[in-house]
Amino acid sequence: MKFRYKVLIINMIVISICLGTIGYLMILKNFNLALNQQIENSVEENNLFQASIEYELLNIINNNSYSSNVLMDKLTEAGENVYTNISSNDSDLYVAYNGKIIYSSNQLICTDELWSTVDVGKKTYTINKVDDSYYISVSSCTLLMDQRLNIINQRNITSIYTMMEQQTSYYNILLIIVIIVCSVFMYILSTFLTKPLETLQKASESFGKGDYEARVSIKSKDEVGQLANTYNIMADSVEAHMDELKNMVTRQEQFVADFTHELKTPMTSIIGYADTLRSRDLTKEQQVMAASYIFSEGRRLEAMSMKLFEFIYTKQHSITPKKLNTKKLMTEVVSSIEPLYQNKKVMLNTNMCNYYISGDLDLLKSAFINLLDNARKASQPGKEVIFSCVETPDAVTITVKDFGSGIPKEHLEKICDAFYMVDKSRSRKEGGAGLGLSLAALVFDAHKATMNIESQVDKGTEFSISFPLYREEVTTDE
């Protein structure tokens, strides 16, 4: 069942119960008021009948010369006179003496117990139903010549019961009309209120079927609007994660393809030259040349394997930061890379700083050697590479800047991917495999350092790595 129908049904049940209860209580209150008024009128009427009959009997009581028959006749006469003079059209009068009815204006509805058992000086009443009519009977009791004298009046009160039935019928009709009108209104209102939920549900279905761009536009500021906003945030997050997973799968596939390709090239050369050495008679010079090719390709495979090992190890293990002096780090990096610069006749200018950062010396050394080696490969003989350091209020920034070939903009976002090479022919010629920058980026990320790259084609490239300032809780290792 749809939520709107649940809202409609529940509201209609609540409205029906509330209106029905209120109407019933109001009708019952009006009925009780009318009934109490009839009772009061009947009691007042009984008082009037009793006083009038007693007045008619005063002369008889004061006259000692009367017989029982005369008294009975006088009571009957008094009852008739009183009824004729003061009774209304819907009331009847009854007079009982010594346990017998001696005057009756109409058929007595009540039982004998009403007037035969009432205490002297008190009044009692009862309500009786005959067919479809209701009657109220009031009885009083006094003593006359040591005998019980009962004055009974009877009134037809069917009108108030009829009124109650009419009010009930009218109210039932009115209640049905109100419920119908409220049902229509509540249906429209519930449809309006649940429409955003349907929109959200449809978007969720589309999202579940793979449409990760499904979003909802609900402007309300209530709980539904908050839910829609939360859904959009969730959808954005899931879409970003899905894109990240897709990119990860793509990178993994590309990683395997590139790695296979990088292995294939030197292995083909090694196999080819080894087969030549095995199957042909070569001169000494040709044998040295073939062995040199096998040696260089083997060294290339060894270098690639070591970098791949470092890449995987760094990715799977966390570092233990220690207090590290930047001057010591830069000095060791320069000592390791300087022979390669001298061989290519590229100048390495340094501007060292004496500050402290938190990190692992070996990993950072390997990362900066990779950056400087890339800068060397991108530079022509006679060019210079700047390796400098500067402190800012909240970080220490180490920069590697060259003035070589530069990196096109379309390659900047991918140069840190494993096996990615901007100039494949130059990289392979220099013995590169496209793992250096990816390894360096991984190391810097593990040190919570930010790497910024600026490059222009034929003008050079600048890598700026900013490290957080040293914190005292790390282990000292100077």
How would you characterize the overall build of this protein?
This protein is 59% helix and 19% strand. It is rod-shaped. With 478 residues, the protein is α+β, with helices and mostly antiparallel strands. The longest helix is centred in the middle third of the chain and has 57 residues, at 223-279. Residues 421-434 and 473-478 have low confidence and may be disordered.
Task: Give the overall pLDDT as a whole number.
Answer: 80
Low-confidence stretches: 421-434, 473-478
**Class from secondary-structure proportions:** alpha+beta
Biggest beta-sheet profile: 5 strands, antiparallel
Task: Please compute the radius of gyration using only Cα atoms.
Answer: 56 Å
Strand content: 15-25%
The helix-strand sequence is HHHEEHEEEHHHEHEEHEEHHHEEE
DSSP helix count? 12
For the termini, the CA-CA separation is: 72 Å
